[in-house]
Amino acid sequence: YNSADSTPGKKPSNSQPNNSGSNSKWIWIAVVIVILVAGGLGYYFVSSQQKDQDMELAYNALQGDNDVVDYEDFLEKYPDSPYANMIKDRINQLKQIQNKWIEISMSSSKNDFAQFLNQYPGSRFEQAAKDKIDSLDWIEASTENTLESYQRYMNEHPDGKYIDICRQGKDDLDKMTVTPEDKSGVRGSLSTYFDAISSNDPTTLSGVVQDKMYDQSVLFMERLHAAGSKASINMQGYPAISKAPSTDGNFIFVAKFRASKAEVDTNGESHVANYNVTTSLSDAYQIISMKMTKIAEQPQSTAAE
After folding, report:
1. Separate counts of helices (H) and strands (E) for the chain
2. Residue 296, SS3 per DSSP
3. What is the CA radius of gyration of the chain?
4. How many CB atoms within 10 Å of residue 13?
C-alpha cells in the first residue's frame, strides 16, 4: 500500500486533461466564420441582384431619351453592362444628329429643316425644326402680303406661333380687297357724276357726292357751261380702284383714271383736253374729293422734207 497515492487532493498520475472548454471555443469561432461568410455571400448576392435591377431600370429609363449626357452617365455608372455597345452606338447616333442640327440651324431654307425631320424623326431638335419651318413660312406669307399667302399659312400651321397675327393680317387685307361689287359701285358713281356734270344736272349730282364735294362740283359745272358753251366730260376706260384706311378707322376707295373734256365754244370751235384724275369715295360709293390734272399736249413733230 502506498500511502502517497492516497494523499488527499493529489490527482492520480495517470489522469487525462479536460479539453472540452477549448473545443467549444473553436466550435463557436467556426460558427461565427460560417455566419459571416454566409452573410457576406448573401449580401453580395442581394447587392448584385439590386445593382442588376437598378441597371435595368436605368436602361429602361433611357428608352426614347435623346440626350447624350444621359447615355454617357449610364456608361460611367455601368461600364460592364450588357447594353454597353448599344449605348455607345446610340451616343454616336445622337452626336451625328446634333452635328447635323448645328450645321443647318441658321439656314433660311425650309427644305433643310423638312429633310432633317424626315431623316431624324423624334430627335430632341424636332420641335426646334418645326418652329423654324413655322417662322420661315410666316416670313414668306407676310412678305407676299396677300389673302392667298395668309390663307396658305393658316392651312399649313393651324396652331402656328403666328396664327393670331396671320388672322388679323388676313382680316385687314380682306377689308382692303376691292370686290367686283365694289368696282361696280365705284364705276356707277363716277359715271353718274360725269353724266350729271355734262348735262348740268345738280339734282342727280347731289346723289353721288358728299356735302363739301357737292358745292365744289356745282361751281365747276357752272363754269363748264358758262356763256352757253357745250361741254362734256367722260372717263376713258376703267378706273384703277383700291382701298385705303380712313381717319375714322374704316376705309375709302381711291379711283385713278383718265378723263377727256370735250367743249364747243360759242364760236362753234371744238376743244379737247385730257386729264389724270384721282378720286376718293366713301364706303357707300359717294365721292369725297376729286383732283384733275391736265395732261400737257405733246408737240407734234413734222416730217423732214
Report:
1. 10, 4
2. coil
3. 51
4. 6
Chain-centre distance of CA 124, in angstroms? 19
* DSSP-assigned states of every residue in 137-195: HHHHHHHHTSHHHHHHHHHH-TT-TTHHHHHHHHHHHHHT---HHHHHHHHHHHHHHHH
Residue 158, all three cell numbers: 393651324
Least confident window among 37-51, 101-115, 184-198, 282-296: 37-51
Only one residue has cell 379711283, namely 255
Task: Give the C-alpha separation, 69 to 164, whole Å.
Answer: 38
CB neighbours of residue 70 within 10 Å: 16
Nearest to 273 by CA among 300, 302, 293: 293
198 alpha-carbon distance from chain centroid: 55
Residue 98 grid cell: 446634333
pLDDT single digits (tens) 11-40: 555 555 555 666 777 777 777 787 777 666
Q: Is the pTM of the predicted complex or chain greater than 0.70?
A: no
Query: Residue with C-alpha cell 492520480?
Result: 12
Q: Which amino acid is at 101?
A: W
Cell of 67: 440626350
Question: How many angstroms separate the Cα of 122 from the Cα of each of 39, 97, 198, 301?
Answer: 48, 11, 74, 76
Cα separation, 196 vs 124, in Å, equals 72
Grid cell, residue 13, equals 498520475
230-245/251-264 β-pairing: antiparallel
Residues making up the chain, counted from first to last:
305
